[in-house]
Description:
By secondary structure, this protein is α/β, with parallel strands linked by helices. The protein has helices spanning 11-21, 36-46, 62-72, 87-96, 108-119, 127-136, 152-162, 167-174, 178-192, 197-206, and strands at residues 2-7, 27-33, 50-53, 77-82, 100-103, 124-125. Keywords: DNA-binding, Phosphoprotein, Transcription, Transcription regulation.
Amino acid sequence: MIRVLIADDHHVVRRGLLFFLKTQKDMDVVGEATNGKQAVELTEALNPDIVLMDLIMPEMDGIQATKLIKKAQPHIQVLMLTSFADRDHVIPAIDAGASGYQLKDIEPDELVESIRKLMRGENTLHPQATSLLMKGREPREIPPHETFPLTPREQDVLSELTKGKSNREIASSLFVTEKTVKTHISNIFTKLHVQDRTQAALYAVKHGLTEPSSLEK
């Protein structure tokens, strides 16, 4: 079962999400938060797999809540679910550690698939969010004398990761074990100074290490 925590200050939104998610045989809504502070507290108490996080909430917004959650429990995936798709919201949300970003007009079936994608370790970004992320930052200039920090095999893993593949799929493509893939991904995160697969994939696209089209799916 995928354990989901809903964080949104609007009662109608929470009721709608709760009703639909409870119809999914592989999902269990373990709690509801009405503000960012409560989202942090309930995440610590309930240890969900996924937090559906609104951006604008009282007491503490979704970005600050995400930062605190990822700092304390980095294994928990945060999926931003909001009405905002502008640069001032998308980029800070991803920088805070959100693993996915979707808009509230998303179709219910697409939302549950986004949740499942996060559990499989895949990217789940709304096309508008992806476009902003691609254009919203200037890539770091790499001096000619600086060697790219990843080994050839780590670059292979990063390329497969950016295509949205799970660890199992990467292992199958590269003919290695899932344990080996996990080790490579951990090394990639450390070397690139990123927190999750989404940020690693964005780094790869920014530096021309893979094609951006796979990230936009």
